[in-house]
Amino acid sequence: MVNQQRNPVLLVHGIWDTGKVFRKMIPFLNQRGWKVYDLDLSPNNGSKGLDDLAQQVADKVESTFGAEPFDLLGFSMGGIVSRYYVQRLSGINQVQRFITLSAPNHGTVIAYFNQGLGCVQMRPSSALLKDLNSDAQMLSQINFTSIWTPYDMMIVPADSSKMPVGQNLTVPVLVHAWMLTDEKSLSAIATALSAPVK
To answer: Mean per-residue pLDDT for 167-185?
Structure first.
């Protein structure tokens, strides 16, 4: 089998994180032939709307990739920020493989502990999630994968990460943050990034 061209990959972090949270994932992917980029969302504390943060992703894409195709991974809150970019800011026209990693695709009750707009948007049945999920089927146009763990204590209920479209991969990782470093999830990410382009 011919080793197909690897797209560059953009990683989008979660709440209270920066791009440094990918310090294990980036070399893991680099060693397997991917060129990897990240960005620091600001503010990163859930006080700003995820739709506004998605514009930062769009700006990073324009400055880094221009109009070239790339692959996208969003962790936790970054998964919803990335979905907004893909579904509402025309990212679907440029992203070829899209992974949400432990993302609250249907909300998390943990978001009730923070009153910031971004956290309000991550609550179950929020207006933003209802909007994104109303036409989630558009993600079938690209290679979309949701990777999640049933043991997640930040995404409650954990199966909120599951999507009715694309591929849902379950990895038995015990802690939310370990999804960024555990060999099982890193292997699942590499597999998803190696999938054929639609």
So the answer is: 97
106 — phi, psi (to 5°)?
-120, 20
Quick one: which H or E segment has residue 78?
A: helix 77-88
DSSP 34: -
At what angle are helices 50-65 and 77-88 packed, to 10 degrees? Answer: 70
Token pair listed for 106: 């249907």
Confidence band for 4, pLDDT divided at 50, 70 and 90: low
pLDDT digits over 79-110, tens only? 999 999 999 999 999 999 999 999 999 999 99
R_g of the chain, CA atoms, integer Å: 15
Q: What's the order of all strands across the beta sheet hosting 95-101?
A: 36-38, 9-12, 70-75, 95-101, 143-148, 167-170
Query: Environment class of residue 5 by beta-carbon count within 10 Å: exposed (0-12), middle (13-18) or buried (19+)?
Result: exposed
